Amino acid sequence: MSPPHHSHQSLPSWKFQLQTPKLPCTLKPQHMALLGLSLHSQFICSNPTISKSRRVRPRLPTRFDVVKMAVATPTTTFGFKNLMETFAVDVQRAEGRPLNVPLIAPFTIASSRLERVENVAIRIELKNGCVGWGEAPILPFVTAENQSTALAKAAEVCEVLRRSPAKTLGMVLGEIGVALPGHEFASVRAGVEMALIDAVANSIGIPLWRLFGGIPIVSPADAAELAAKYCKQGFKTLKLKVGKNLNADIEVLQAIRVAHPDCLFILDANEGYTPKEAIEVLEKLHEMGVTPVLFEQPVHRDDWEGLGRVSNVARLKYGVSVAADESCRSLVDVKKIAEGNLANVINIKLAKVGVLGALEIIDAARAAGLTLMIGGMVETRLAMGFAGHLAAGLGCFKFIDLDTPLLLSEDPVQEGYEVSGAVYKFTNARGHGGFLHWDNIAYV
Asked: Is 241 a catalytic residue?
């Protein structure tokens, strides 16, 4: 039998490097609505070190991070698509429970305000004894489910999994997709898919990032040189949540610009602007001599004409890329965006489309020449860790925004990837590498 799902050996570890310049003392996080930073510049291999995973408690972000990821050179390739056809899944136990975690401060975007995280944790145990973990994030007005609905649907699907005979991973994932279709249940679908795939990765003894690829780019010697160069350069990129009030947003941007004249911006409006307002923000920034690195979801998710208009002005007049986030919730949306040239970047979130849906969208976006970003809702290190493994394995994301665990005042996840200041470290531990103390997760 395989060793317990949370046991680890001392294995080579690989760092997910975040370069983080300090926020000037004249600015404080509460002076603006923000969500960390996240600009991925290049995948690099790092020198192996011997380490053991440990629990890491998140901190209040006082600086804004530009992400560089590193992954190990795999000695064996485990193709996910091949595994879907060959690995037999036989579920012994499956259950969902509330995952309620307080926030350091309320999380506010243009469409909603969150006082605490009320997600759903999923645990799946196979008959071989291996366990997988997943998380369904709940964000009002963004995810379609609330916590009670998510718990009910998770219970239904878990019952189906427990009663189902052994089938290939692909067949089981297909049945999950039928039971939890479309955007209506995408968050729960993502959580169940995460847990099942994690259990399979544990069964074959590999980390999730290797299951999804594990693509090396440069040698350890080159990586050390690149790391030193980037460290000396420093990265100064702020990601700001905007879209609630145009004039107030511009005032905040002006204040930051005065205090921090060399910083770069990623703007995320979360559907908050009209097309006219979005273009006005770009005009004001241009007058200030500021060109955002990226402008996320400037208009309402269904305003396709407005998205295309803003994207066209942003790209041709100001040289700014526009990302579709809330507007990209299916493969159909991606094709529409690509065919209409409505955005330059697609933001992949597992809670929007599920794991399999994300892989399909990634393939379609890459084929269409769109740039990729990976992000999240407000999740613990359980869901963010899975997304990080996916990004590290595929190696195709330019923008990486996986820092929401830093907003939590508690960390319920044991082990898993480590956070040490500006460094995210993924190890060769099997599967996700993290787990919950299930008995401490409250029943409803």
From this structure: yes
Residue 216 identity (one-letter amino acid): P
Burial of 167 (0-12, 13-18, 19+ CB in 10 A): middle
Instruction: Please state whether beta strands 11-19 and 423-427 pair in parallel, antiparallel, or not at all (unpaired).
Output: antiparallel
pTM here is 0.75
Phi, psi of 175 (to 5 degrees): -65, -35
What are 81-105's pLDDT values in tens digits? 888 888 999 999 999 999 999 988 8
Residue 325 falls in the annotated catalytic set: yes
Point out which residues pair with 15 in neighbouring strands: 425
**Of the residues 68, 236, 241, 425, which is catalytic?**
241
Please name the residues in contact with 267: beta carbons below 8 A apart, sequence gap of 6 or more: 239, 240, 242, 281, 292, 294, 295, 296, 298
379 beta partners: none
Q: Which residues pair with 324 in a beta bridge?
A: 346
Whether 222 is catalytic is no
CA distance 338 to 374: 18
| Residue 113 φ then ψ, to 5° | -135, 130
C-alpha span between 69 and 58 (Å, rounded): 19
